[in-house]
Structures are given as structure tokens and as C-alpha cells.
UniProtKB/TrEMBL annotation:
InterPro entries: PBI_I9 (IPR052471), S8pro/Inhibitor_I9_sf (IPR037045)
GO molecular function: serine-type endopeptidase inhibitor activity
GO biological process: vacuole fusion, non-autophagic
Record protein name field: Protease B inhibitor 2
Keyword terms of this UniProt record: Protease inhibitor, Serine protease inhibitor
Subunit-level organization: Part of the heterodimeric LMA1 complex together with the thioredoxin II/TRX2. LMA1 binds to the ATPase SEC18.
Similarity-based family: Belongs to the protease inhibitor I9 family.
Function: Cytosolic inhibitor of vacuolar proteinase B (yscB), probably regulating protease B activity during limited proteolysis. PBI2 is a component of the LMA1 complex, which is involved in the facilitation of vesicle fusion such as homotypic vacuole and ER-derived COPII vesicle fusion with the Golgi.
Length: 75
């Protein structure tokens, strides 16, 4: 089962660190589904939640926030 997550990197993350993060997503079998323009953020698809934990450990110094990408409903 694949899972989608929105990952926001810290605003001051150097391009070289951003590239390392994106390369890591591909290395764990994930993909970049969307890149945001206004913020340094990405929607990523991962084959397994455990892969997310690995990414968070490897890139904890540049990741600002991670949340599951899911539908939001209003009443």
C-alpha cells in the first residue's frame, strides 16, 4: 500500500541538501508527486510508512514538517 505525504523543508535549506532529500525519496522506492511553488515542499508517494521514518531520520536537520496527504472535508 502506498502512502502520500506532504513534506515541508526548512526555508533556508540549501539546494544541495534539498537534492539529497529528493534523491533519498527515490532510493527508498518513492516518487515526487508534486513540488510546491510558494514553499519548499513536496508531495511524495512512498511504498511503506517505514520508509518515511527512514527519511525523517536521515534528513531531520532539513525537514520542518511531515503530514499525511489526505482528503479534507468541511461541514
Amino acid at each position: 500500500m502506498t502512502n502520500n505525504f506532504i513534506v515541508t523543508l526548512k526555508k533556508n535549506t540549501p539546494d544541495v541538501e534539498t537534492k539529497k532529500f529528493l534523491d533519498s525519496v527515490h532510493r527508498v522506492g518513492g516518487s515526487i508527486e508534486h513540488e510546491f511553488d510558494i514553499i519548499k515542499g513536496y508531495t511524495i508517494k512512498l511504498p511503506d510508512v517505514l520508509k518515511l521514518n527512514k527519511l525523517k531520520e536521515q534528513h531531520s536537520d532539513v525537514i520542518q514538517n511531515v503530514e499525511e496527504d489526505k482528503e479534507v472535508h468541511t461541514n
